[in-house]
Design brief:
Distance between the termini: 75 Å
Strand content: 5-15%
InterPro entries: ThrE-like_N, ThrE_Dicarb/AminoAcid_Exp
Largest sheet: 3 strands, antiparallel
Structural class: mainly alpha
Oligomer: single chain
Number of helices: 10
Low-confidence stretches: none
Radius of gyration: 23 Å
Order of helices and strands: HHEEEHHHHHHHH
Mean pLDDT: 91
GO biological process, one term: succinate transport
GO cellular component, one term: plasma membrane
Shape: elongated
Family: Belongs to the ThrE exporter (TC 2.A.79) family.
Keywords: Cell membrane, Membrane, Transmembrane, Transmembrane helix
Strand order of the largest sheet: 1-2-3
Helix content: 55-70%
Number of domains: 2
């Protein structure tokens, strides 16, 4: 009987770590990860303790009835943003509580969430570029500046995606993207294309701004997760530095 209970705890630990890793990789903050994992553990009648770092999760699941605990560790993949996964796991956790899901049902749902299709690449490129052009308009740019910003954003994001595929360092990918976008938008400043070409130059890198890392950093700091907050804040600052370095290289090349 105890052997079966131990196997259930070990299986639950795998599920909880997979949930945490998916949430971490999808842009969830530490409080949401901890709350979701503890909610699922309690739904199955177990206590859990979780240690969250920037690149790993350490979990201990404890069963008071048989006086057994199981500790396990899982490295997390590089962080991004996928709110479909975050909201899907949140809904799943509540359904586990209310409907008493089996482990097999949980694994099926996790596999479904993991395999959710992304938007087509061309759609992502076009919509992000359109957002950049919209920011340019908000900053006072005209049609010519908006077109320059659209092209610069489109090309920069394309370069970043290709750099990620090639396995470059994440900060180098940001630098390549910022440099490409500024190189294209900076040409309009260099050759005086448009009324206010500097608006296109300034807004061509806004798609790279690390909003999620900085927001999660502040959220973690306010929740008392000081280490995670500092690490995520430093990650955001490194991204900002990479963007600034890309812009600086363009300014030096064009002598703006």
């Amino acid at each position: 009987m105890e052997t079966a209970a131990i196997k259930r705890i070990q299986e639950l630990s795998k599920i909880l770590l997979e949930v945490g890793a998916m949430l971490m990789a999808s842009g969830a903050n530490s409080a949401r990860i901890r709350t979701t994992i503890l909610r699922i553990a309690e739904a199955y009648g177990y206590n859990a303790e979780l240690l969250i770092t920037h690149r790993a999760l350490m979990l201990t699941v404890f069963d008071e009835e048989i006086d057994y605990f199981h500790s396990s560790l899982k490295r997390t993949s590089p962080h991004g943003a996928n709110f479909k996964v975050v909201s899907g796991i949140s809904r799943m956790s509540w359904r586990i509580v209310e409907e008493k899901w089996t482990y097999e049902q949980v694994w099926t749902e996790l596999n479904r969430l993991r395999s959710l299709p992304h938007y087509p690449r061309l759609v992502i490129l076009a919509t992000v570029a359109l957002a950049g052009a919209s920011f340019c308009r908000l900053f006072g740019g005209g049609p010519v500046e908006m077109l320059a910003c659209f092209i610069a954003t489109f090309a920069g994001l394309f370069v970043r995606q290709e750099a990620v595929k090639k396995g470059f360092n994440a900060y180098l990918c940001i630098f390549f993207a910022a440099f490409t976008s500024c190189l294209i938008a900076g040409a309009s400043v260099k050759f005086h294309i448009g009324v206010n070409p500097e608006h296109a130059f300034a807004t061509s890198v806004l798609y790279l701004i690390p909003g999620i890392p900085l927001i999660n950093s502040l959220s973690d700091l306010l929740d008392g997760n000081i280490m995670n907050g500092l690490v995520r804040g430093m990650n955001g600052l490194m991204i900002a530095f990479s963007i600034a370095l890309g812009m600086l290289c363009t300014i030096l090349i064009y002598n703006l």
